[in-house]
Amino acid sequence: MAQELVLVVIKMIVVFAVALLIVAYLTYFERKIIGHMQLRLGPMRVGPHGLLQPIADGLKLFVKEDIVPHDSDRWTFYFAPILNLVCALVLLAVIPFSYNFMVTRLNIGVLYVLSLASVGTIALLLAGWSSGSKYPILGGLRSAAQIFSYEIFLGFSIMGVLMISGSLDLVKIVEAQSKVWNIVYQPVAFVVYVIAALGELNRVPFDLPEAENELVAGFHTEYSGFKFAYFFLAEYANMIVVSCMAVILFLGGWKGPVLPGIVWFLIKMCAFFYFFIWVRATFPRYRYDQFMRIGWKIMLPIALANIVVTGVVMMLV
Amino acid sequence: MGLVQKVLMKDLLIGLRRTVTYNYQKAITMQYPKEKWTPYPRFRGVIRLTHDEEGNLKCIACGMCARACPVDCITIKTEGKGKERKLVDFVIDFGVCLFCGLCVEACPVKGKAIEMTSYYEAATYDRNEMIFDINKLQADYKAWERSFKK
User: Fold this and answer.
1) Cα–Cα distances in Å, from A130 out to A13, A87, A139, A213, A234?
2) ipTM of this predicted complex?
């Protein structure tokens, strides 16, 4: 019993330490890749090829002044970034990085991820509300509206995969893809999932809650120093979770020839990181009405049709 | 745009292809203090005084350049009269200079007594340091250029 507990604690520490390291270096690679996509070099000065830049950034945020606006709701203002980061990191507990490397195995893993991912949005709403100024509250409200419309077809896009694998357990979903990855059976659902994931992540082209040229910085306008860093870390941690989920649901998780499972998992995850950064470097932000139209009028019907088609095919085969 | 193209998100894919090709091109950024830009042959940088074969200044102290200068940044001090006239000091205030090159064009000496070099790292913290006297104007700027030219 005690041995098991120690093992779980060690796994937790490894997963969270690696996740935070990946988060720190995601910011570096994001700047580097976007730089090269714009024919620039990105960070170059701190360390060889700017490799120590994330550490310098972290130190800078750590020593910055901690400002709380006069009109803010003080406790909620402190609570929101913590809630956001905790919700993002807690999700990593159920992600199976390989067949026997995960913090805990839940038989309702998909449900857990979907539900806690939307609790993170409440933190954005709280942040917007408690800041006590107009831009954050607009950002927070947009974030709430965004999650309403994108959570729905995110859930529906996963439905097809769940029908094929017949389980909410993430390990069983991966095991069901031993022969053929789900992306072959569910290409439409995959595209819908990726678009919904971009909306869920509040990233370009759907970064409406922080739309810097309309709302200054949206929900985190009033945040500075380490409280801002919490939001920043949470955004990138969410990116890890969404990429992991995409790998598990559609790309066969740790399945792959020759290399050990965890390496395959990380390779597939990195491909998703690259894709998200690539999209950010390419597209402008959608207007709010366009964004809502895509969600409700295009993606939701497609996701529903996908479920119907999957059901009919499964009945016939 | 046709329906098929819209469904396949053709325009979005074109955009993605554009950025990914840029990703694998060479960046045009120049890491300035580490690597330096080589000026073009007719670049107008800091002015210098030239020497003849014996190593004397070519300048005959006629004052044509000072008169041609549109901002009066050239000051020439002379000694003696007529054929005895000698150059004592030649001062250019680069804090005022336009780098227009009219002084070089005005110079009547064969092969030009003053010329424009390619030197461009003349920024200083004090404006007085931009006033170049006769000694500073004879510095070898070609050596500076040789230091980084490939």
Assistant:
1) 32, 19, 12, 22, 18
2) 0.71
